[in-house]
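Good morning C.,

I know you're traveling, so I'll keep this short. The sequence:
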Amino acid sequence: MTMSLREDDTEATTRNANLSMFCKQILKADKSIRFAGIANNLGSLIATEYREGLVPLLTKQQTSQYAIEAVLRAAIREEFESNIGKLEYSIGKYEKLIRATVPITFENIAYNDSKNKKFYLLLSFDIDSDAKTVIDKKILPSIKENKQFFI
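The tokens, ready to paste straight into the viewer:
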């Protein structure tokens, strides 16, 4: 039994390192991206990366709380999927930045328990950025190209 626990820990460590690498890749996709984080279906942050030289507006604890709330909001929106379709992403514009939540699911991958395998990409952008275009043209294609990080 100890062996399988260690294997699980190693698997989780490897996945978290891969997700951190994915966040770094997302930051490189566009200079307007301030922050990239991956949260699980409960809103726990698994990986986070900030743009080099950036002074975050939130503390680590506030960022963790934001992740929980962002995932909760996205999950609440799922209630209307049958009527309006699946959420591709949501964007909120604030006075100092733009935030986005992107659910990460893969329809063609069979999970034993899809609820536990759902991830959310949390992003923040500079206030003057075109977040919608960055997400559509750079982020969504990158998620599809790197689905191995989430399996």
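Safe travels,
E.
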